[in-house]
Design goal:
With 160 residues, the protein is mainly alpha-helical. The chain contains two helices and no strands. Helix content is 81%, strand content 0%. It is rod-shaped. About 4% of the residues have low confidence.
């Protein structure tokens, strides 16, 4: 009977050794997968570091471009403001000249005589342009003054 107990104990130890070997094989396969995942993770981290460096260089380039654009826009804005001021002065000078011309024209025209004329016969018209009346100098003057006022209003709108 003692022989059977010794044989049972040795059998039990053999079974436990087999279970230990099987467990070690399973652990070994899991460790191999972890090592493979570790290598893949290291490769991914290296790619992320490279992509981060590239992005940092791109951001630095964009910052330089933004500074250049800001400086360029500032220069253009200052130039545009100078042109706007020049145009405003030219509009004011043109308005003064237009007013002088209007006064000269008004002063050079003789006062209209209150004469009553018989209406002239209208010749047969061949085109619509021949039916148009001759431009009235007062109407032309009023139109020119209205144009000057609109130009002044636009200039004030741009300056504001």
């Amino acid at each position: 009977m003692t022989q059977w107990i010794g044989f049972a104990v040795e059998g039990l130890v053999a079974v436990l050794l087999l279970l230990t070997i099987a467990y070690c094989v399973a652990l070994n396969s899991k460790l191999r997968r972890l090592k493979a995942d570790e290598h893949a993770l290291k490769a991914t981290i290296a790619e992320l570091i490279t992509a981060t460096e590239i992005a940092e260089r791109a951001i630095a380039g964009l910052k330089v471009t933004v500074r250049e654009c800001d400086q360029n826009i500032g220069d253009r804005l200052r130039t545009a403001e100078r042109f706007a001021a020049d145009i405003q002065r030219q509009i004011e000078a043109g308005t003064v000249v237009l007013d002088r011309l209007a006064r000269i024209v008004a002063a050079s025209r003789p006062a209209p005589e209150p004469a009553v004329e018989a209406p002239a016969p209208v010749p047969p018209a061949t085109s619509p342009a021949s039916l148009a009346p001759a431009p009235d100098s007062k109407a032309v003057l009023a139109a020119a003054q209205a144009f000057a006022e609109r130009a002044r209003a636009r200039a004030k709108g741009l300056a504001a």
